[in-house]
């Protein structure tokens, strides 16, 4: 067989270069599609959700007397009663209890407007009647209608009235749930990884355990919810819908991630570190505790933070253990009924009122901000304490 001529070699070279250019173009196109998708997603969420961070308020005269405490609607003039949130009116007795000097007085207050009024002021679809629209326009002309920052979105719990619905109870429930998750999964996961990597022998049992751990990391999360329901609620008796039940269930799901990331961090420590410890007479436990673990801690923490971020975004296993309850007040302990932010978003998304659509998108923005912050913290932690051997 004759050797290829210079012309044939040049032709093959040009063909390889063309293939390389096509491959690069395909990769660039893939990156471009991903960027466009992310831009559309974030743009759509911001467009729908930013209005939830502002809430319409109306300045009205509130009369505090015995009748208005019993019938809150009686505290307002007839022409503005149906423009004000019923949720705010229900707080009148608490206001009088907190400040008894209010009794017998008429006070000008900025009051949260009804969701229909809020939608009308924001120029969205609404069901206001012509008379109500005329009343809103009249009050706006008098400077008594204003769009203010919606602090209630962060300080209120869930509500059946969208204008006063907030994420406080869901955020507190999320914190309790993640606290339980990390207190259970982190020490167990790290100790399991240390044993498998540093102490366990290479035999059929340990290889079987390693394979099962890797398989558990790919199990659908809803199966962990069924396991949590069967073990923690039905067998152990943990209160249903509590942060304790949700945290223990998420701990099962997070364990494989922490074990795998911890083992990878332990493997990254050079054997020379271990040999040096053995050379000065240290036991295996001393070598692991005093040398290997401190050096691998940044990688362990990085994997744990990523596992925590994944657990925070889970909804399916928490649905099974009952953390979809209506929680207007923030829980004060891990055994009380609670919900989490992803479940709260899911609940709002299923509500028929259009005002919940903006709050759903706003909740997604808050959740994304927290998740991105956790992932950024993991990256910065790895970069800050990373060692190259």
Can you put this structure into words, describing what you see?
It contains 16 helices and three strands. The chain is mostly helical. The chain folds into two domains: 100 residues, no CATH class; 218 residues, MetI-like (MetI-like fold). The chain has a three-stranded antiparallel sheet with strand order 2-1-3. Helix 11 packs across helix 13. It is globular and about 85 Å long. The chain starts with 5 loop residues before the first helix and ends with a helix. The mean pLDDT is 87.
Tags for this entry?
3 strands, about 5% strand, mainly alpha, globular, three-stranded antiparallel β-sheet, 16 helices, 2 domains, about 400 residues, MetI-like fold, single chain
Question: In terms of topology, how is this protein built?
Answer:
Layout: H1 6-49, E1 54-64, H2 66-70, H3 86-89, H4 92-98, E2 105-112, H5 115-121, H6 130-141, E3 145-149, H7 152-155, H8 168-199, H9 204-216, H10 221-236, H11 243-267, H12 271-279, H13 284-312, H14 316-320, H15 341-349, H16 355-385
Antiparallel strand pairs: 1-2, 1-3
* Morphology: globular
Helix content: 55-70%
Q: Taking Cα atoms only, what radius of gyration do you get, to the nearest Å?
A: 29 Å
Number of domains: 2
Quick recap:
The protein has 389 residues and is mainly α. Helices cover 65% and strands 6% of the residues. The chain has two domains: 100 residues, no CATH class; 218 residues, MetI-like fold (Orthogonal Bundle), CATH 1.10.3720.10.
